[in-house]
Amino acid sequence: MPLTDAQRAEIAAHAKDSSPTRRPTVPALEAMLYEAQPVLDHGFLRVVDYMGDDSAIVQAARVSYGRGTRKVSEDAGLIRYLMRHRHSSPFEMCEIKFHVKLPIFIARQWIRHRMASVNEYSARYSILDSEFYLPAPEHMAAQSEVNRQGRGDVLDPQAAAEVLDILRSDAMRTYSNYEKMLDTEEGPGLARELARINLTVNTYTQWYWKIDLHNFMHFLALRLDPHAQYEIRAYAEVMLQVLHAWVPQAATAFEEYRRGAVTFSASMMKVVRRMLAGETVEREGTGLSKREWDEMMATLKG
Q1: Which are the contacts of 253, defined by CB distance < 8 A and separation ≥ 6?
Q2: Exposed, middle or buried by CB within 10 Å (0-12, 13-18, 19+), for 139?
Q3: Which of 84, 112, 173, 223 is catalytic?
Q4: What is the chain's pLDDT, residue by residue, as a tens digit (302 residues)?
Q5: CA trace torsion 75, 81, 87, 88 (10° rounding)
């Protein structure tokens, strides 16, 4: 189970507590607060705390003294303008904190997003649970022939079953050895900081992850991309729902100007202008590599 009964009871008790506040709150996100959203086979993601809302972005941009009296449509227009022109600092005024349970190999990808505060479960201090990520058969794929860090065709059922058996047996064997090394009665009682080094990277870890809205949207723009690894994309999909609940106006602008937008180089724009003028343009002489040309044409064709 993603959460133990004790953890569920602790979260439920926390969720019942409420405190009066004069700061802005977001009812849609308040309803999601503390609730663990399942991800993958044993993982989860839950919102622990947040600061700010759509109005906080507008307030920071205008450097106003209060929440203001302008129409919602005017605020939305300003947020869209800020997003469109990459004015990032007003978005940095909002922050959100997550509790995430995830496989170690995904945590090592995730930690590359350095503009966040992270506190991870310490395997030097505590003992890791015997929970491991095992991909579903439909996500078991061979190495891509065109993308060195991606997947290609899905494995046939027999091959997928064989790989899953290997992953499962390796994880269980290394965890069993982990327990033996930690054993102080019949084993050596090895220090936890050393015993952990033999564990497989599909073992689950947990952390608290706090980030401002600007960098959160940058994380989502990268990790929602179809080229991102499925396992981290699964977390990003849940986080996108959180974004829409928390700052719906900013989320709409993000979908329009970041997630759904494309960027062309100066050379690509010259080609596009020539095409719009009715000219038939060939790649030779444009200064674009074959890969750049193919990417541009794929984007133009949708």
Answers
A1: 76, 79, 80, 82, 83, 84
A2: middle
A3: 223
A4: 456 777 777 777 776 777 788 888 999 999 999 899 999 999 999 999 999 999 999 999 988 656 655 677 789 999 999 999 999 999 999 999 999 999 999 999 999 999 999 999 999 999 999 999 999 999 999 988 877 778 889 999 999 999 999 999 999 999 999 999 999 999 999 999 999 999 999 999 999 999 999 999 999 999 999 989 999 999 999 999 999 999 999 999 999 999 989 999 999 999 999 999 999 999 999 999 999 999 999 999 98
A5: 50
SS3 192: helix
- Residue 14, Cβ neighbours under 10 Å: how many? 11
What number of residues does the chain have?
Answer: 302
Residue 283: active-site member: no
Q: What are phi and psi of 207, to 5 degrees?
A: -155, 165
Q: How far apart are CA 66 and CA 234, in angstroms?
A: 38
If residue 207 lies in a helix (H) or strand (E), which one and from where to where? strand 204-212
- Read off the tokens for 291: 């890969």
C-alpha distances in angstroms, 257 versus 103, 222, 242, 260, 284? 31, 14, 18, 6, 31
Provide CB contacts within 8 A for 210, sequence distance 6+: 95, 96, 97, 98, 116, 117, 118
**DSSP secondary structure letters along 217-281:** HHHHHHHTSTTS-HHHHHHHHHHHHHHHHH-HHHHHHHIIIIIT-----HHHHHHHHHHHTT---
Using an 8 Å Cβ cutoff, are 131 and 203 in contact?
yes
Token code pair at residue 107: 């945590």
Cite the beta strand spans of 52-160 per DSSP E.
Answer: 95-103, 117-120, 141-143, 151-154
**pTM (whole model) above 0.85:** yes
